[in-house]
Amino acid sequence: MDYLAFPAIVPSGENEIMLSYKRGTDHGGDPGAQLEIVRFDLETGKAIQDPIRLGIPDASMDQGEWVRFPNGTLRTYIDAEILDEEGKEFRMGLQQSISQDNGRSFEPLEHVGIIDGVEYGYLFDSVIIGQRVYALIMTFEYLAGGKRSVDALHTDDNGKTWHFIRNLSREFGDIPINESNLLPYKDGFLVVTRGYDLMVRLHQVDREFNLIQEENLTENTESNGAYIGRPRLFSYGGKYFLMGRNFRPPYGEVPMELALTRFNPDSLEVEKHFVLDNTHQGDVTDAYYTGPILFDKGKGTLLNVFTYRALFGNSPDILRLQFDSTEFLQ
Fold it and tell me: Deepest of 27, 146, 244, 292, by most Cβ within 10 A of its Cβ?
């Protein structure tokens, strides 16, 4: 179980985070893989709590994502997969585990269950506005509801009940999308989507997720040759950024890189592109789902990136990369 991948982070105190990642044997299709959780001190660079592991026999805990609710409750939502008799992977329905003590302990895993007639399998991201939490989440055609789409949901009771807002796959033009991310902007949100059509797109939407405008970065940016894997949006110093696994054109001929793209939130056009890892285009075989966080070191703010990386086909490990954040504002 030395395949460590897909990190997700959430602040849990001053200069402290909860870090989760998959501990398994492969990228996918590895029954018994667990979600491992550690408390991590950004100042010392050390784990300060014994690891907690969540799992289901014969299932793989492939992707965990944190949601911190307005009442302080912390939950991890897990993309759990199982194999059928022919060895094909499919989602068993979104799992959750609740922590009432800021990540020191977690309740047993449980199904999230049916939401407005649909069962979901993979939660991507969430934001809090007042007492309402918005989330982007995906369902699959073989789960209850019988569709494959990325939907926007909201909850007003700290995750006890969720409600459907909009089917974003349809709203964005019936495009085939999966991993997505959102960020509050003006009176709505910015949304980034990874397409099955090997495209990455930025969208601006209102509070009800009606489309205002969008930009296809793959078609209009020289540094993006295909989709951006597990994209993450964040803002700092009045600038807006997109981070994730990037493929330079021509797709399939250049190894993946960890990229940071700065863009104009009004026009959605790219301003600058930074390569954070694999500048020499080495043999990186699996990598770069990320968890970014800004860390005040005293003399300045540092951009910390928690990610994973495998070289030459070996099992990946979790990495912490650290950068002078002022470089990205210039």
Answer: 244
Report d(CA 295, CA 233) in Å as an integer.
17
Of 178, 117, 116, the closest CA to residue 144 belongs to 117
Separation CA 203–CA 181 (nearest Å): 10
CA distance linking residue 40 with residue 226, whole number of Å: 33
User: Which stretches within 104-190 are classed as H helix?
Assistant: 168-171
DSSP code of residue 108: P
Q: Is the dihedral of CA 321, 326, 329, 330 positive or negative?
A: negative
Percentage of residues in the chain having pLDDT higher than 90: 97
Cβ atoms within 10 A of the Cβ of 58, count? 10
Q: What is the chain's mean pLDDT, rounded?
A: 97
Closest CA relative to residue 285, chosen from 315, 306, 319, 259? 315
Residues 149/141, Cβ–Cβ less than 8 Å: no
Task: Write out the DSSP string of 67-81.
Answer: EE-TTS-EEEEEEEE
Q: Are 242 and 232 in contact (CB under 8 A)?
A: yes
Q: How many CB atoms lie within 10 A of CB 295?
A: 15
pTM, 2 dp: 0.97
**Dist. CA 97–CA 95, nearest whole Å:** 7
Distance, in Å, from the CA atom of 173 to the CA atom of 34, rounded to the nearest integer, reads 36
Closest CA to 98 of 124, 128, 74: 74
Question: Which three-class secondary structure state does DSSP give residue 316?
Answer: coil
